[in-house]
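seq/struct pair 1
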Amino acid sequence: MTGTRDAVFVLGIVCVGLMAGLFAAFAYAVMPGLGQTDDRSFVLAMQRINVVIVNPLFMLLFVGGAGCTVAAAVLYRERRMFWWIVAGAVLYAIGLLITMALNIPLNDRLQAAGDPERIADIHAVRRAFESSWVRWNIARAVVHTAAFAVLVVGAVTR
């Protein structure tokens, strides 16, 4: 049981860490870079990213972080690190809620705007998307990074 329990916990930490890194990379590199592009390039790039990011690996990490941390909490309920794992799972869940309630609807509206070559007021479409999406992405990056940090603390709190 200990090997399985440890493997589940490590997988949870890895999934949460990779998601934190993804959202952080968008915050400090991808969005600042796209922010320097013209409106059509920005909208087109984000539309394409939002399509390709929903792939099996992303979904495995996205859902796996939640599943493995909750499973680890159950498996470690009698250990000192239990509350660290619970805190990591709760923080991760908050990040998922931000993604599902705020970032994804913004992505959907951007996609629904249609082909950037045919959008009459591309600047308005970008303006309605960019600042809100960036703000909520930073929030989820911070929350996911905090989840990763407390899970790592839990791993060293035996």
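seq/struct pair 2
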Amino acid sequence: MNAPLASGKSLLLETQSKPVVIPPMPDYNGRVLAYVGAAAVIFTGLLSHTFADWLIWLVPGALLWPHAVHFLTRQTFLRRYSRVRHKMLHVDCALGGAFAGTIGLVATPSLSIMMMLMFSCMLLGGLRQWLFGIFWFALAAVAGLAMNGMAVSLQAPLVLSVVAILATATFICITAFYAHQQARALMSAKTQIQYQREQSIALSHKLSKYLSPQVWQSIFTGERDVRLETQRKKLSIFFSDIKGFTELSEEMEPEALTELLNHYFNEMSQVALKYGGTIDKFVGDSIMIFFGDPTSRGPREDALACVSMAIDMRKHMKIMRQKWRSQGIKTPLEIRMGISAGYATVGNFGAENRMDYTIIGKEVNLASRLESLADPGEILVSYETFSLIKDKIMCRDKGEITVKGFGRPVPIYEVIDFRRDLGAERSFMEHEKAGFAMYLDSEKVRGYERAAILQALEDAAERLRQGED
């Protein structure tokens, strides 16, 4: 006698709001349903004199067995075994095979019991469980046949066939209904998870605007923990501000000034990110950027990237200044910059509920001091920065300065340009007079734009010649 385990796997999906539990048909309910159907088949077989009378004891056994299994798997030491459900289904398959063999493999009842068992095996454990079920069923059926022999006729009476088919159909339909409900709950949970995932992505992108992209990426990829911790690292530190901004703020309306400042910050941020800089903060018209954390290419490459960024910013500022002049802003705006390389403390500072990712140290103070000493359009660097970049960047000695926190005067240098861009082979050219401004970076000119640029220069030259006449 047998009773299959009518149960699939339980699924637990975590969402942001609460866990979504997708329950299968309970083991206990499924087993009761199957064994009640088996008891009905046995009782009908006894009434039709298809089965031997001594099998009457299997009817109460079939009705009591599910309760015994429930007690064993929930109240005894067996509950500690993770695969007890699979093992009990093996027992069910063996009981079903023994029953089929005992009744001499009468076709309809044997197939009915086998179908319920195999359906349960496939639901619970897939192909592996199904193969084990076939093995135990066949083994027990052979043992039953050895004891009682084959039935005289494998054909079952009509009433027994109808009851067996109804019992199997009822079991499969109810179990399939639970599986359908489980699939619907799974699809609903997947939709909910997808919606919350999209919300999380959108929210993370909004929050990323308040952090440097490198910091945001290291947090969301799990490389960095959000906790109060710092470390000492060798960094290249950059400060800049706009010379003439104070005078401009007195001339312009706050709304127009805000738009100009945001445009300036946006353009400079794009340059900083192009070179891999970590944007620390904006203060007034000042920008603080550093290289070397959370990612670093080595002190030399970090310093070179930092100075390259500063040179690019200086060139870009000239282009923006011309654009602002065309918009009616006559106050000449110049950027001044200071760069220092050395060890600083970097990490999360503040409180547990409000942190700021930044850097502190005397090198930070030195970079700020260099920026304040720089003339409009000038880039000043410390000696250590100069020593790291001097093979690729031309610098001019500017003497020494005294800085708080340093025991002796600090040598400083003015950045001229890339060595490759000096002389006749330079890629960047500029010329600015009243009524005329030209900025040419030949490396950035696209091929299809050259003809238009040459035509504009020829038109300008022709107009200048006409003015001379």
